[in-house]
Structure formats: C-alpha cells, structure tokens
Amino acid sequence: MTPLLQLDSVNKAFGGLKVTQHLSFSVFPGEIAAIIGPNGAGKTTLFNQITGHLLPDSGRILFKGEDLVGLTTQAIVKKGLGRAFQVASIFPEETVLDNIRLAALANLDHTRRFWRPSAEHRQATEAAVAILASLGLEEQGGRLAFELSHGDQKLLDIGIALALQPTLLLLDEPTAGMSPEERQRTRRLIGEIRGEYDLTLVFIEHDMDMVFDIAHTVRVLQQGALLAEGSPAEIQSNEEVVKAYLGEEL
Amino acid sequence: MGISDMKSLCNGNTLGWGALILAFALVPALMTSQYQLNVACNVLIWALFATSFNMLWGVTGMLSFGQALYYGVGGYAIGLTVTYLGSQWYFAAFAAGLLFTLVLSFLLGLLVIRVGGVYYTMLTLAFGQLAWQIMFKMYDFTGGDDGLQGITLPGLLADKVYYYYFVMILVLVAVWVLKRMAYSPFGLILRGVRQNPNRVRFLGRRVRRNQLRIYVVASLFATVAGALMAGVDGSVHTDMFFWTTSGEVILMSVLGGISHFFGPFCGAVVIILIEDIVGAHTEYWSLLIGSIIMVMVIGFPRGLVGGALDVAAKVRAILQGEKHDDTTLTAGLGK
Amino acid sequence: MDFSFLLTQMVSGLTLATLLFLVASGLTLIFGVGNVFNFAHGSFYMLGAYLGYQVVTVWSLNFWFALLFAALGAGVFGALIECLVLRRIYGRANEGGFQILLTYCLILIIDDLVKLVWGAEYKSISRPAGFSGSLTVGDIAIPSYNLLIIAIGLVVVVASWWILNRTRPGKIARAAAVDREMLGALGINVPLTMTVVFGIATALGGLTGALAAPLRTVTPGAGIEVIIDSMIVVVMGGMGNFWGAWLGALLLGEVNAFAVAFVPEWATLFSFLVMVVVLIFKPEGLFAPRTTRKV
C-alpha cells in the first residue's frame, strides 16, 4: 500500500533553533496517527509546513505521491488536505450553519456566485446540514459562531474542515481546553466522523487517554526530531519515550 | 433548523422594498420646489455611493479612503464628454466612465491590496489625492478649480422630474444588485475575508483575489453614483475627487451602522438632510459632524440602524415578558 | 547644470526630508509602541504651525519660544486626546478602522477649530533673527535656516535614539511595543505609558509644524498634505522601521526638490511615482526585514 502522506527528511530551523530535524515518516490511508511530544517539540510547526504556511528548509512532503513543498495553502487544501486549529478558526460573526455552508460553497467552487442568496444554494446547504448533524450541532445552526461554547467552537472548526471533503485531516489538539465531558464527546465524534467520511487522521494531542484510546500509530517528537514511532502499546513500553516524556506524565 | 428562518428573512423584505420605492416615487409629487427635488437626488446618489463603499469596509473589512477617485471618474466622464462632444454622447460617456473605472480600479487594486490594514487605507487616500491634483492642475481641459458647468442631458432627461426618476430607478436597482451580492456566496466569502482571512485560505480560496473583486465592483458603483451626480446640477467640480468626499461616505456608513446592509443608506439620508438644514446656518459643519461621529463611535458603535434594532429587540423582549439576557453575547468571546 | 545648483537642490531636499522624517517618526512611534494609527498626526503638525504663528506674529515673541510653545501645546493636546478619546476603543473588534475613523473626526474638528480661531486665510511667519540670510561658500549660497532645520533634525534623531535605547522610559516604550500585558504584569502603568508616548509623538509633530512654518505657508488644509507625505515615507521605508522611515524621507525629499526645480507644475506627481515604483518591486517597503512567506 502506498502512503497517503509521506515526510522525507524534512528540516526547518528558525535561526539557530532547529524546529524540525530530518523528520521522515509515512501515514497510510485509513490510519489514525497521533503526534505527541512536550510543548515546543515542533508539532504545530510541522503542521504549518505540511499546510504550506511555512516553507521547510529542505526535504519533501508527499501527499498522494505529489510534493507539497512550495505550494500555496490554497493549492494544498484543494488537493484534499484539511486542517482544524489549536484555537478554533471560525467566522465568529456568521451563523454556525453559514460557517459550514461557506466551506461547502468553497468546496463546490461556488464562491464567485453573486446573485442567488447563499441560503438558496441547496447542494451546499444540504452538505452543511449533514455535517452539523454528524457533529451534533444541528440545534445550534442558527446561532452566531462566537456565541458557542469553547468545545462547540472547536467542533465547528472541524466541521468547516470536513465540508471541504478532505482525504486527510490534520487536527491540532482537538480536545485542548475542554471539560472532561466535552473530551469524551469529542473523542467519540472523531471516531465516528472518521468512519463516516472515510478519513485519514493525523492529530496532535496532549491527552494521553485519547491518544492511546483511538490512535493506531503514535509518533513522539522531541526538539523537532522523531524520538520513537510505533503502535500505542509499543510506545508505552518504549524505554526512551518513558524516560524522556511519559516518565514525567505518568 | 434555521434554514427556513433564513429564507423568510431574505424574502420578507418585499414589504420594505415596496415602502422604499413608494417613498422615493412620491417625492416629486410632494415636493414643492426644484431645490427639494435636487436634495432628493442627492440623498439617493449618496446612498448608493455609501452602500457601495460599505461593501468594502463593513462587509470585507477594507477601509478605503479613496473611493472619491471613482466617484469623480463618473462625474467627469459625463462632464467632459457632454462639454466637448455634446449631450448625444451621454450614455456612451456613462459606459466609457465605467470601462475606465474597470481598468483603473483593477490596476490600482493590484497595487494597493498588496499592503494591508492602515497602509491600504492610506494608499487609497494617496491615489485619490493624486487624481484630485491632476484634475486640479489640468485647468485647460478640466476647468480646474472652477469645474465644468452647463452639462445638458439628452432628451427627456433634461426634464428635472424625469431625471429624478431616472436617478431613482438606477440607484434602487444598483442597491438591489449590491444587496443580492451581499447575501450571495460571494458576499459570504467577503465577510469571511473580514473575519478570518487565514481560514479563507484554508478553504482553498484566495484572500487578495476576492478583495480585488469587491474593490472593482465597489468602484464601479461609485462611478455610477458620480455619473448620476453630474446631471443633478448640470455641473461637476474637482471636489468630487477630494479626500473629504471619500470621508463623507465613511461618516455616512458609521452613522447608519456598517454591519447592516441598509446602515450606510440610512446614514446617507440622515447626513444629507442634516447638512441641508444645518449647513445653511453654519460654516463649521465639519466640526459638528466630526463631534457627532466621534460620540457615535465611542458610545454607539453599531450605528443608527444597529441601535434601532437593539431597541426593537429590547422592546420585543419586554413585551414578551422575557428578561433581556446579555450573557449569551459575551460567552463565546473568551477564546 | 552646475555644481552649485545641484548642491542647493540637495540641501533643500534634505530640509524637506528632515521635516518629513520628524513627522513620520512620530507616526511610527505611536504605531510601533501603541499600535494606534494616528491619521490626525498631520493636524498636530498644523496646530504647531498655528501656535508658532500665534507666538511669533501675533504676540511678537521669540521664535525659540514659539518652537517650545508649539511642541508643548500640540503634545498636551495629543495626550488629552489619547486619554479622553482613543483609549475608549482599545481592544474593540475592527479597532484599526475605528482608530482611523476617530482620528479622521479629529482632523475635521481641528481643521474647523483652527479656522474658528485664526481664520481661513494663509498665514506666514518670518525666519528667526540670525537665520534669515544665506551661508555663502564661493559662489554657493545656502539658506542658513535650512541648515538649522537639518541640524535640529539630527539632534532630535540622535536624542530619540538615545532615549529609546539607553534610558528606562525608552526601554519601557519599546517593551510596550512587544508585549503590553507582560509590562502591566511587571507593575508598569501601561495606560500612562501610552499617553506619554502619544504626547511626545504629537509634540514632535507640533514642533515640526512650527519649524516648517517660515518655509511653507500656514493653511488649514496643511494637515492632510503632511499626513499623506509621511504615509508615503512610512510605506516606502518598510512599515514601522525607524531607519527605513529616515531613508524613505531622504528619498522623497530629494526627489521632490529636484522635481520642483525641473517640472514645478507636476512635482507632487513624482512623490507618488516613487512610491508606486517601490510598491511594485518591493511591496513590503525598501528596508523591511524578510518575513515568513504570506500566501
């Protein structure tokens, strides 16, 4: 099987600070891959390089066999790579429905249409309503996005990404700042939408329960370099990881 | 589900449109003098200008201080053509003005959209002032500070009442088109550009491309407003290009409320009418309006329309015996 | 074209550059430290010019006192405006737009107040005693007042550099530019810092206005011309870059001086032309540091 996402010796430094060091790994279709590591390990910076926000100094980032390095964010998104952010990236003054409808319209390439009201674009609206339902946000559709709770805003962010029909979804700390109940719900939802939308997931997470509960594979980053990779069980028994990272946590 | 609600919101405006058309259609019948008809023309034209401007600021978040440039292009396209070629070229001049704006706003837009925020504002101001200086200095061609007088209109338009209806229909159609645009997918992505440009990039859409599109569209409608203004007094003046003209539509928009489509329209109506009444009694109009807007910005940032809607919501809440609850408004802000 | 002509134009360009830089540096200071764009900065310049006129022509007092009076007057007014008006909108959504709007209202208000007090006619003030003539070397004559402006400009630049880099208040101001909350946590009175910075920057504007008054006529519309020119300087120099602004001012001043000499009618066009060329080839400004790629 060919990997969906393949990092090939990716390097990035900010001045003297090496944020990504010779990073190579592959994510296969259908996989749920977790990326863990202490704060400052370069996890979000890695996401930023994958999505074209930052340019790696060297190395290749292959997605479906094509190199993403040098492409704009827009081009990368159009290839089927979605992203939800650490701080929910939503359109605060629009309704929840319009947030996702906008993404659906963008996905259909309908955002140049300037005559029919967006509410009357059926295809996009139906797609948006379906996503709201899968996220359990259907009751909130008419509310303005900034009125939502923190947890719901993060779900909405995921919803916006879903509307673009990605094959690979990057989730940056999907449960950060959530209450235990919200975490439970989000963990369950992520599992559900992965099946429903046939997604491959790469997520950054600090909540180890979530990591070991839903991830198929785990990669541990330390100072921008890959410290270990393997199944959750392998990682849990990896001495280096236990020493460097989990030792402090457990 | 909120979809049906949204639909009724959009279509439920039929009544409002009817009232608006009726009110302006009755003006010639109710007005007693030529002068009042002129004021009504002014109201309509400034309302269109302000509404087109707010597509940039209130919708897309681009505060332009140079829309007077395109307004002036409209005015002088008519003024110069009619003066030098005769009034039979009026409609050709209209089209030529729009074509000129199309090209100019596209080229200037490419330049000014490269810088964001206040620099965008200042660059639009700089180019507006540049155009003003050029018009001012080309005295032999443009009449310089004296402007162009005696612009006559062709056929029926020469009649003041017919011209008023011509203005009214064009303005209302233009405003209707802009409103459709504001609530279309294109309008939605423009609002997205204002609220979260980074997310728009992650929707696979280009921020600057969309900014450029609305810059050109808003400029075209400003040109329509300018072209219509040339026929009101039969004269154009370099003041049309001056930076205070750009400032005027900004003040109108804020007074009416920039987050509502009809805010700038209402703001224009109020300002033109007050200016008409107060302006006759004082030469310190700027001092007055400057102070009013300053108080407005600090105390009532949602403008007249926003304030009116707030009051209406409160009244409705009181009538329904519900306690007005502000907590939902602030709950989501702590992110 | 002979050497003396070249030199004269260069000095006149340098004079203009100094004046532009004095205004633009105040603008940069407020923007850099307070993240406030003071659209009315040119109006403080104009206010300074009128205050200078008041002292020199109406009260027939010393020119040096006029400079001090203009700086103090504009500075105190600026500080008042900051704490009475601008402070109220800090942190509001779309703050940038509302800042421009509020300071635009301020332009309207100051313009009319000036008209109310001094009338709409052009005003002028004479050069101070001892600086009305020219400095002659061989066949080259350079107006001594221009040299005075350049000298004062140099003093102000060196002094501001010293204050910003070597003194505690300067360090506080620079820290405020980076992280206001942190500064507050350290027990620094941040609102007061902002007011003082605003006061100093507007005082600089007022001083420049009075300094320029003997060279340019004093009119109620002066504010907007000055703000546009300073803005061009700031954009060309790379936004918020102190030395970039200086080089931008130099470029604009010299281009303007030579344009005035050759094509006086269209001189102002050249400022725009330079800016457009800079924007086409280096939209981030001439001296902006390389930043991360923006898409």
Task: Pick out its properties.
heterotrimer, A: 250 residues, alpha/beta, Rossmann fold, 9 helices, 10 strands, globular, B: 335 residues, mainly alpha, ABC transporter involved in vitamin B12 uptake, BtuC, 75% helix, disordered C terminus
Question: What do these coordinates show?
Answer:
The complex is a heterotrimer of chains A (250), B (335) and C (295). With 250 residues, chain A is an alpha/beta fold. Chain A is built from 9 helices and 10 strands. Chain A folds into 2 domains: 1-80 and 167-250, P-loop containing nucleotide triphosphate hydrolases (Rossmann fold, 3-Layer(aba) Sandwich), CATH 3.40.50.300; 96-165, no CATH class. Chain B has helices at residues 3-11, 14-30, 34-59, 68-85, 90-112, 117-137, 139-142, 160-182, 185-195, 197-201, 207-233, 243-256, 263-278, 285-299, 303-319, 327-331. The model of chain B is unreliable at 1-11 and 323-335 (pLDDT under 50). Chain C has 295 residues and is mainly alpha-helical. Chain C has a single domain, classed as ABC transporter involved in vitamin B12 uptake, BtuC (Orthogonal Bundle). In chain C, strand 1 (134-137) and strand 2 (140-143) form a beta hairpin. In chain C, helix 1 runs parallel beside helix 5. Chains A and B meet through helix 2, helix 3, helix 4 and helix 5 of A and helix 1, helix 9, helix 10 and helix 16 of B.
Which helices and strands occur, and which strands form pairs?
The complex is a heterotrimer of chains A (250), B (335) and C (295).
Chain A: E1 5-14, E2 17-27, E3 32-36, H1 43-50, E4 58-63, E5 66-67, H2 73-78, E6 81-84, H3 96-107, H4 122-135, H5 150-163, E7 168-172, H6 180-197, E8 200-204, H7 208-214, E9 217-222, E10 225-230, H8 232-237, H9 239-249
Parallel strand pairs in A: 3-8, 3-9, 6-7, 7-8
Antiparallel strand pairs in A: 1-2, 1-4, 4-5, 9-10
Chain B: H1 3-11, H2 14-30, H3 34-59, H4 68-85, H5 90-112, H6 117-137, H7 139-142, H8 160-182, H9 185-195, H10 197-201, H11 207-233, H12 243-256, H13 263-278, H14 285-299, H15 303-319, H16 327-331
Chain C: H1 3-34, H2 41-58, H3 63-84, H4 95-118, E1 134-137, E2 140-143, H5 144-166, H6 168-178, H7 180-185, H8 190-212, H9 222-237, H10 242-262, H11 267-281
Antiparallel strand pairs in C: 1-2
Helix pairs in contact in C: 1-5, 1-8, 1-9, 1-10, 2-3, 2-4, 2-8, 2-9, 3-8, 5-6, 6-8, 9-10, 9-11, 10-11
